[in-house]
Write a structure and sequence with these properties.
Length: about 110
Amino acid sequence: MVYNTIDTKNITGLDGIFVYVANEVPIFVPAFLLSTWLIVSLLIYFGTRKFSGQADFFSAAASAGFLTCVLGTVMTFTPGIINLYSLSTTIAIAIFSFIFLWVKRNRD
């Protein structure tokens, strides 16, 4: 069995490395986007809780969803990094986060 190593590819930049990893490990990009969303939302949540004494997870999730959606959209500029399923999941998470934020704000 022949394995594709990075030595056999003609990689000239950072985007080439991302394309290589995305092709060899298909779960890399969705895991990267999910971990980005989780880390940013927790950082925003605990940061606002520390500085103001109160925090809102829905607003943190909506902000992180927007940032992750922008990051996923930027990944489409280089073909082969992100597929349509991962991008549509990222957009759906951002939309649902904003819907949950909007519903919570209407109840307050």
